[in-house]
Amino acid sequence: MEHPKHGYELKKEHDHRLAGAKPLAYGQVYATLQRLERDGLAEVAETQQEGGPERTLYAITDGGRAELERWLNTVEPSAPYVASPLFARVAVAGKAADGYLVRQREAHLARMRELTAEKTSGTPAQVLAADYALQHLDADLRWIETALARMKEDSNA
Amino acid sequence: MLEARGLGKSSGRTSALTGVSLEIAEGEIVAITGPSGAGKSTLLHCLAGVVRPESGEVVLDGRRIDTLPEAELTALRRESFGVVFQFGELVPELTAAENVALPLLFNRHGRQEAMTVAAEWLARLEVSDCADQRIGELSGGQRQRVAVARALVTGPRVVFADEPTGALDTLGGEQVMSALLGAARSSHTAVVLVTHDNRVAAYADREIALRDGAVLAGVDR
Fold it and tell me: A36: domain range?
């Protein structure tokens, strides 16, 4: 079982376990903890004061544990709409987007090279995060490839 | 180090090339990418001296190689090039260690020396356990590592790899790529990698994207 933790510890753990995600801002950590406390999902376990500033340790409640369990088992709805600036540019520009697509493709592949290099020295959490990013970039690249092929087919027809 | 100047190839069963020029530096890892039919494998075969281009030149260390007589070209391929294919193309009647030793035996090394060097390469690719097994007893990933060892055993200038992970699952492919590129980088061997998989291409230092037999403008730098 996880022991009670203060905000700084929670932030560090978030940033470590969700490697590749945007690091949490301190302000956001404390605001979120207060909201969780208000909703009965977390509670103050202890207040420490050893010379320095006061530190509040938070613990998860039974209600919080139930909510966590529910969230962990919730299937994320598959996106009903295509929402991506990449897609929007092509939708607006049509066949004129081919030059843009070639440059976008190059930028994506450059990022994939960085992520692949990071994987060789990464922690397990960083490797998982890099895999996730790599496969999403790869999906974009394959769509770009298909879009370019369709544009070419249309202009040949 | 290895250079192609205006390569053209139209006849035969392979996809055409229409004036492909490129340069590969010593120790560089380059991915040749593109959809099927783009000419990737034809380009690889021209660079590796397996197929002769109809026009243009292939130059290795300042020396034109595409016009060499067959015997000289074969000797050059054995000394300077290593190859890894999608399906290892290893000799099934031999053990893993014997397969790796084979290029050294062709290059007139003694059997004992060849087997010693082969064992070192198998260890480097973490497949020492497979040394005495026949190829049929190995997993796909083990076979490809043995193929990588065989490609590198002669200390070539360039390793040509044609879809080396094509028959493997994602994690198996990743291990083979790491093994291939780790070994190539530490021995300063250039790698020319043909792949249609962007995730494999991302292991390279640079991409040469082919479309319809030509280098895609704006990608090659």
Answer: 5-72
